[in-house]
Write a structure and sequence with these properties.
The chain contains seven helices and 14 strands. With about 260 residues, it is an alpha/beta fold. An eight-stranded mixed β-sheet has the order 5-8-2-1-11-13-14-12, sandwiched between helices. A two-stranded antiparallel ribbon has the order 3-4. A two-stranded antiparallel sheet has the order 6-7. Helix 2 packs across helix 3 and helix 5 packs parallel to helix 7. The chain starts with a strand and ends with a strand. About 45% of the residues are buried.
């Protein structure tokens, strides 16, 4: 099958002019089929504060009430997404910014209330992989915002790692997919205070051990869980690395 690279970026990488410029340049030089998934949580938190809306987080996940949903829809689907699309167009990449609602690309169910009521947060149930693959084959580079919909007229805030993982899994029947989670560090670290202590490869057994030891914690746990689920669903390779390293094959490989 033809190869496709799906890159997820978040954090300050997409929200600071210099790091965004460098990322888009590196992404634009990737040959062949590609998809970019982005976050934008810091920008959403900043705008919410300016509007007097408190941002509430539980285990690194945003509680999304109706006012917060308006903020994230504006920021993720508008400001961050279109800045990325415009930047890629300037570099000759025919990018198309999309949320899950566009062309019914990703449908979610509102997360049920359990120990925590996350509000208007979506758990992905369907991905229109055929349509997405058709766009890609036409030379379009999708830029996916972390928003889905419930097909009842409501937008839903959806974790960007989940968007990347679900898109990669769905596209695995059309392409030989490499999924790359890019953030500020060079990979998963053995010692969070040592940026050079990258763990080169992690399997399920090692993952369980690292979690028990407290080496892997917080937001890295769902990132790795998404990675293993992607491998199970046919994604060829998953890599966690620094955004500036996407051409070098470095980082942590998930097996």
């Amino acid at each position: 099958m033809e190869k496709l690279i799906l890159i997820k970026v978040g954090g300050k990488i997409v929200e600071e002019e210099k790091t965004l410029h460098d990322l888009l340049h590196d992404f634009s030089t990737i040959e062949g089929y590609k998809v970019l998934v982005h976050g934008g949580g810091r920008s959403a938190t900043k705008l919410a504060a300016q509007l007097g809306i408190e941002s509430k987080m539980v285990n690194g996940r945003r509680i999304t009430d109706m006012e917060t949903l308006k903020i994230v829809t504006m920021v993720y689907g508008g400001l961050v997404n279109k800045n990325i699309v415009a930047g890629l167009q300037a570099l000759g990449v025919n990018a198309l910014g999309l949320t899950g609602a566009d062309m019914n690309l990703m449908k979610s169910d509102k997360r049920p209330v359990a120990e925590v009521d996350y509000g208007y947060v979506g758990d992905v149930k369907e991905v229109n992989a055929d349509l997405l693959a058709s766009l890609i084959h036409q030379g379009v580079v999708p830029v996916l915002a972390p928003l889905t919909h419930d097909k009842q007229g409501h937008m839903l805030n959806t974790n960007a790692d989940t968007i990347a993982g679900e898109a990669a899994k769905a596209l695995a029947k059309h392409f030989d997919v490499t999924l790359m989670f890019c953030f500020e560090k060079k990979g998963v670290l053995l010692d969070e205070n040592d940026d050079e202590s990258v763990i080169p490869e992690i399997n399920r057994e090692a993952f369980k051990r690292y979690v028990e030891q407290g080496v892997i914690q917080g937001g890295m746990i769902p990132k790795l869980e998404n990675s293993f689920q992607a491998i199970d669903a046919g994604v060829k390779q998953v890599v966690i690395t620094q955004a500036s390293e996407i051409h070098r094959g470095t980082g942590t490989k998930i097996s």
